[in-house]
């Protein structure tokens, strides 16, 4: 890939859009432009800074991320960070004990029930007091 292709901002925009799973029409709508206009931007070697900032914001990346985007680097990062563990059929990598979380919820429910019970008892006492005063 020659230097001109590496610095082709429009292609970088298009590739980032594709990697993020955004259709050209969807990005165009986010930018408030037609799909044809976005297509022309993606075919342009350079893009004005202000327009590039708008596109970056619509893509959810920084302007610098677009300018410095390299598909080789992106694939290298994915290749170095994605590992398949075939030692088990299912590997969700759970970082907490689900039973501990369940017990936390049970304890919280007990606490809330006690608070509710106390509030109901206080309400009954208050109503009994009002009833006694009414009977006098």
UniProtKB/TrEMBL annotation:
Mind telling me what this protein is named? XRE family transcriptional regulator
> Per its UniProt record, what InterPro entries does this chain match?
Cro/C1-type_HTH (IPR001387), Lambda_DNA-bd_dom_sf (IPR010982)
The record's keywords, sorted A to Z, are: Coiled coil
Q: Name one GO molecular function term.
A: DNA binding
The record ties this protein, via PROSITE patterns, to: HTH_CROC1 (PS50943)
Per UniProt, residues of the HTH cro/C1-type domain are: 13-66
* Source organism per UniProt: Sinomicrobium pectinilyticum
- Cited Gene3D superfamilies: lambda repressor-like DNA-binding domains
Residue ranges annotated as coiled coil are 99-129
